[in-house]
Write a structure and sequence with these properties.
50% helix; Butyryl-CoA Dehydrogenase, subunit A, domain 2; 4-stranded antiparallel β-sheet; globular; 4-stranded mixed β-sheet; 10 strands; alpha+beta; 3 domains; Butyryl-Coa Dehydrogenase, subunit A, domain 1; Butyryl-CoA Dehydrogenase, subunit A, domain 3
Length: 378
């Protein structure tokens, strides 16, 4: 199993790098922040991404996608991390697409085609507290005739205010903390009983709290099987974790590149500060951390594409390693840049903020270390 990109995958990464530097760079993120764009991404840029096939990376050809695979989508996410590119790629093209594979044919056909065409934003609504804990789902879906009534609230729903539909994790039986008794529903936005409250995020991205008060879901809105959605939910989450890990790895790589360039230019005591051995050691250590993180991401992506049963475990390893690498690199970058590193003038602070948020989304390193230990029966 090769971790080296194929020629086709390398061409994808190269074209993505050129496009994102031109259309979705840190400069564009600043504009989104300063203009207070509600969706926190440009709809026209997302349409351009969809036209290049990015929205259908994980959608099969029958539904208008390319089925390019997780290795390719991870390469895209790495390039997005390098540019701090704001888009609904992870929420919609990754997690939304994976979730809709488990829907009934009529629902699957409709939404996968719309996702691949870039005509629908789908947001995963799973967490209900400040920490990632999918088994603690307490939002209820009670039987009502042939359908269900949803009541409860979800927190930190990424791209929630722009969503056309939500993939909602709900409890149809058992109690919070059980993996049994969970079900997934596709709930279209704008229905009576849905309240979306935008959240101010430190990384200038979009997230929302979404309340469901007596929202009805029909029998065909169920994704997967009633009471037995845990394995599908884990698959959706692992796809999202891998995408975030790739973004974090790309982010860390870009920040170290910018920092080493600064070390070569900034002079003190008549010489570049990069000539000081203490800073060289710190930069070399960060480089090793990034290479390790990148390798875990590539391995996890290849395993998912090969349908390996260890893919979930490796997605957790990648999320943890990439999250820690991005945290360390961005923190060290601020220090190595000195006082100017604390200002909004440099992009370093934007990378640090995004690294903190992306590192916590879908589970921080502590969450994934515990998950890996459980999977290995420790």
């Amino acid at each position: 199993m090769s971790l080296t990109p194929t020629d086709e995958e390398a061409m994808l990464a190269a074209s993505a790098r050129e496009f994102l530097a031109r259309r979705a760079s840190p400069r564009d993120l600043r504009a989104l922040r300063d203009e207070r764009v509600a969706a926190a991404f440009r709809g026209e840029v997302w349409q351009e991404m969809a036209a290049m096939g990015w929205a259908g990376m994980l959608v099969d050809e029958q539904h208008g996608g390319s089925d390019f695979g997780h290795f390719g989508s991870s390469l895209l996410c790495m390039e997005m991390g390098r540019q701090l590119s704001a888009s609904p790629f992870v929420s919609t093209a990754v997690m939304g697409a994976i979730a809709m594979r488990g829907a009934v044919p009529s629902l699957r056909d409709r939404w996968l085609q719309r996702i691949a065409d870039g005509k629908a934003i789908v947001a995963l609504a799973v967490d209900e507290s400040q920490q990632h804990a999918p088994t603690r789902t307490a939002l209820t879906a009670t039987h009502d005739g042939d359908g269900f009534i949803l009541r409860g609230e979800k927190r930190f729903v990424v791209d929630g205010q722009a969503a056309d539909a939500f993939v909602v994790a709900a409890r149809t039986s058992k109690r919070a903390g059980d993996t049994d008794g969970l079900s997934l529903f596709l709930v279209e936005a704008g229905q009576p009983g849905i309240t979306v409250q935008p959240l101010d995020m430190i990384d200038s991205r979009a997230a929302a709290s979404v309340a469901f008060d007596g929202v009805r879901a029909g029998p065909d809105d169920v994704i997967g099987k009633v009471d037995q959605a845990w394995s599908l939910l884990e698959d959706v989450l692992d796809a999202g974790r891998l995408a975030l890990a790739a973004e974090l790895a790309g982010m860390a790589d870009e920040v170290l590149l910018r920092t080493t360039d600064y070390l070569k230019q900034r002079r003190q005591f008549g010489q570049p500060i990069g000539s000081f051995q203490a800073l060289q050691h710190r930069a070399a250590d960060l480089y090793c951390q990034i290479e390790l993180a990148r390798s875990t991401v590539m391995q996890a992506a290849r395993l998912r594409d090969h349908g390996d049963p260890r893919a979930g475990l490796h997605a957790s390893v990648a999320k943890c390693k990439a999250g820690e690498a991005a945290r360390r690199v961005t923190e060290e970058a601020v220090q190595m840049h000195g006082g100017v590193g604390m200002t909004d003038e440099l992009d370093v602070g934007l990378f640090l903020k995004r690294a903190r948020v992306a590192g916590a989304l879908l589970g921080d390193c502590d969450f994934h270390a515990d998950r890996v230990a459980s999977m290995l029966h420790f």
